[in-house]
Structure formats: structure tokens, C-alpha cells
Amino acid sequence: MAETADLEKLRKKVRAKDRELVALIAERFEITSELGRRKAAEEMRVEDPEVERAVVKNALAAARELDLDPGMTESIMRSVIASSRIRQEGARNPTAAVRPNIAGSQFVPPPLEFRTAIPVSRKATASVRSSRKAISEILDGKDDRKIIIMGPCSVHDIGQAEEFAGRLQCLQKEVNDRFLLVMRAYIEKSRSGRGWTGFIGDPYMNGSGDIQHGITETRKFLKGLAESGIPSAVEFINPITALYIGDLVSWAAIGARSSGSQLHRDMASGLDMPVGFKNGPDGDVAIAVGAIQSAGESHHFLGADETGNLRAFRTLGNRHCHLVLRGGEKPNFDSRSVRKALKELATAGLPERLIVDCSHGNSGKVADGQMAAFEDVIKQISAGDSGIIGLMLESNLKSGKQRIPEDLAGFKASGLKRGISVTDECLGWDATEKLILKAYRKMK
């Protein structure tokens, strides 16, 4: 009881200091608001980069004297400066800071806070590095195994995804000398129209959009995979997502709708993991080939860092970007399409290596279609096609899919059937396991 009382005393002190801190910020805003009024009277610009740099420099000097984290200090000061600037601009022009089409917003802590709250253990770090290296060596031809990226079309229930991962881990032991199995852990969902946009954006599937909870649970899930030695694959739809979970990811996809996006090419050029660019929705391979060329080079772009501050970045380029054939208006997993795609890569001066996604346009979004595509690709590999370095399958605990409403307001996810996809139709675990073991025997 004495210990509890002591803790409560400390918490009271913390709360008191928090009030003092907020009061100090309010006082600072009063002073900067007066500065803003005087600037307006003298027709001076609100922004003064030289003064702002001096303010940050002064704060960092104080942080060093007090032994405070400089990154945290700079993040706080830049946030305060930005808020002061907005207040000053709003005082002289009341409509300047208004965003009429934004219904509301919520604070989400910067990536560094999530990484601190859910840190990557040494075991997880070693696992992620090892799996990235293994995938890279397959891409470089140093490892003759094939990659199989398998898992739910989109993760909607962490517990069920963890069960799938456990089964994958057991299967890996049986096929380790021929296949590297990677867990498809997609937590964002690209949409051509309306609908649920994935676990990270709406983890409760009720339209509440609790992104902070989505990021928290995603980090815990990916950390668990890494600590179990299971490589993970995600599709980065929002480039900011990579800042929150990228340290736990082994392989990343850039989807068909994003391969032509400069933002995604910028991001991929700076990622230290292999990245697969998918051909366009219509089946066009050229857009992905151009993306691979682009992301392999150094880029300069504006982005956010782990503290949430904007920075101008220069990347080194990512030489482990590669093509993913996912079909389009017609399938492109057949040998003729594969040879054509490899030729386009060679013409562009790129390594002749690609992954075939057996779902999407290569299956007509029908689970049985995935099986046909997978068996055809395995036949090509067995016949000596070394350009195919991997395959992708959409697979879940049970086969099929279940519909969810486009408008999720008030929806109860507890009523969903267990182990069945809520987005594209997936193969069930039993069919997936048989398919992979059959391919393993064929390739021995």
C-alpha cells in the first residue's frame, strides 16, 4: 500500500508539471500572437526562417545542458513554432488556416513514439535483417529457393492472422530447402471505389477510424511475427505508413494503382528492404518497369522523419526493386507473358527477375483460379525458367469471402465468420498447404 501511495504522489507531481507546461505554452502563444500583430502592422511576413532556426538552436543548447533528448526537443519546438505561425497567420487573415472540406482530425503521435512504446527487440531486429537478406539473395541469384508470399488478402483480425502465421511456420520447416515462405500481412487496402480501407485505418471495422489503435496493434502483430522468425510482407498504400511499421517489414509491395506514383517511387528508393512493383491495373508492365528504374536511383523529396518533422531527403536508391505480374484485363502468368515481361526488363537494363501474383487479374479474383495459375508457374520454374523468383497467394484459414457493408458505421465485426476473408476471395489453409507441398515434391 505504501508503494501505491508513493506512486500516486509522483503521478500528482507529474500532472502538476503538465499543467505548468501547458500554461507556459499558452504564455508563449500570447507573446507570439503579439509579435504577429506587430508584424501585421508593419506588413512583415509571418515566417522568419532565420529567427526560427535561432529558436531551435537555443532550445537544443538548453536540452544539452539538461541532458534531454535533442530529437524530442526539436520535435516539440518545431510543433510549437508551426502552431505559433498558424495563429499569427490566422490573426491577420481569418480564412487562411481554414480547411473547409476537413470534417475533423485527431492527433496521432509521431512514428518515434510508437517505436519507443513498442520497441523492436534484438531478436526481432535480427530476424527482419535475416529475412531481408534471404529475399535479396534470392533476387540476386545467390539462393536458388523460390519466395512464396502467402496470407489473407487483408488482415482484419489479428488473432486469426497469428493462427495463420503459426501454420505457415510449421509448413516452412517442411519446404525450407526449396521455398522461403513470407507472411502476407496486408494492413492497408486500396479501393477502386468505396469500402473498408484496412486494419490500420479502421481496426474496429465500424467507421471510427481509430488509426492510433490500428498502428499500435499492427506493430505488436509484426513484432510477434519477427520474433517468431516469420518474414512479413505488406503493401504500402500511404507512404507515411512505412515510418510507423517499416522497421518490422521484410518485403514491400507497391500496388497496381501506385506504381506510377512519384511519392511511392520516392519512398521505395529509400527503403532498406526489397520492393515489388506491380504492373498496372490494365496489365501494362511498362509502368512498373519505369518505377523499378526510378526507385533504383537516388531521389530528392520532401517527407516526414520519425519525429514527425518535415525534412528534405536524399536517398541512395534501392537496387532490390523488382517486377510483380498480377494480371490486368487478362492474365499474364503464362510462359509467353512471363518471357515478354523478362524481355522488357532486359531492354530497360534491369535484372531479369520477377514474382507472379496468382491472385487479382491472374485468377479473376476467384480462389480456384489461383490454384491454376500457381501450378502453371511452378511448371515453368520446373522447366528451367530462372527469371521467376517467387509467387504470391491470397490464402486464409478458410476458403471464400464474406461481404461487409461499404458504410461501416455501426457495423459489428463480432458477427463475422471466423477465418474467412472480408475482401477478395481466398484459398483455405488446407488447399494452400496441399498446393505448396505438391509444388515442393515437383521441384525436388
Features:
TIM Barrel, 2 domains, 10 strands, 444 residues, 47% helix, Chorismate Mutase Domain, subunit A
Describe this structure in words.
The protein has 444 residues and is an alpha/beta fold. The protein has two domains: 2-92, Chorismate mutase (Chorismate Mutase Domain, subunit A), CATH 1.20.59; 111-443, TIM Barrel. It has helices at residues 2-41, 49-65, 70-92, 111-117, 122-139, 158-175, 211-227, 241-245, 262-270, 286-295, 335-347, 367-382, 429-443; strands spanning 146-151, 179-184, 232-235, 251-254, 275-278, 300-304, 310-314, 321-325, 354-357, 388-394. It has an eight-stranded parallel β-barrel with strand order 1-2-3-4-5-8-9-10, surrounded by six helices. Strands 6-7 form a two-stranded antiparallel ribbon. Helix 1 (2-41) packs across helix 3 (70-92), helix 9 crosses helix 10 (286-295) and helix 12 (367-382) runs parallel beside helix 13 (429-443). The N and C termini lie far apart (65 Å).
